[in-house]
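Comment thread on ticket #2218

A.B. wrote:
> Attaching the input chain for the structure job we discussed in standup.
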Amino acid sequence: MPTFEEALDYLGIDYADDIVSRNVQRALDAAVGVVKGTVGDDIFEYFPNSPKLRELILLHMADLYDERNTTTLKANAVNRRIIDSMEWQLKLELKRQKEDSA
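C.D. wrote:
> Ran it. Output below, let me know if you need it in another format.
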C-alpha cells in the first residue's frame, strides 16, 4: 500500500500543512477503500507488493484529492480506462491466486 509520503510525491506536494495532510490522508484512505471494494478485501494479503495495485490506489487517490471541492468525482477518459483495466486485471489475478492457494 502506498505510504503518505508516496501520496505527497505523487501529487507533487513538497510541503504539506495540517489541512493538506488531512486531505491527502483522507483521499488515500478512501482510495484504499475503493480498491478493496472493487477488487476484493483481501487483495493486500495476496499482492502486498504489487506495483499495479500501488499505482491503482495512487490514481484513485489523486482523482479524489484533485476533485475534492467539486460535487462530482471524475477521472478523464484515459485515466478511467486505465483504472477500469487495472481493476479487472487485479480481480482476475486475485481469483487465480486464491484458486492456486486452495
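A.B. wrote:
> Thanks. Noting for the ticket: Helices lie at 4-11, 18-39, 43-46, 51-66, 77-101.
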